[in-house]
Every structure is written in structure tokens, then in C-alpha cells.
Hints:
5 strands, about 55% strand, single chain, mainly beta
Amino acid sequence: MDFELFGDLSDVETIAVNLSIRENADLKARYGGRRWRKLKGIATVRLASGSVRRAEVHWYEAHGVGRRKMKIKRLLD
């Protein structure tokens, strides 16, 4: 990650579940877990440059594994 979460996530929505995820086989092989979800939400992030911005963030999550492969999709401000 080239950014750091700075605060809580809000407006969290599920985008895809299990077989609808393109990277499902890779996620299971790399991290384990059974039922993977792709989620999106709004967060305040601190970028590598040091600036603090609001952004739409996407990530994968499974029970017992936690958040993985978090990435910024777009900056909102």
C-alpha cells in the first residue's frame, strides 16, 4: 500500500462475493479463507506525499483473514 488509512471507513458496500471475484483462486491460495468478499468504502487516507485526502477505497476481506489488497480507486476531493 502506498497510503495509510487515517480514520474509519464509511459507506461500506459489498461489490462481489465468492465466485463473482476474478482473483478468488489467488486469494484462497495466498491467504486461505473460504468466502471472500470485495468491498468498497469511503475513507480518509494519508498518501505517500504526506497529504491527507478523502478517497474511495476497494479491498478484499474474508472471515478470520481480514482486509487484504487495499487500493485507492479515486480521490474524492
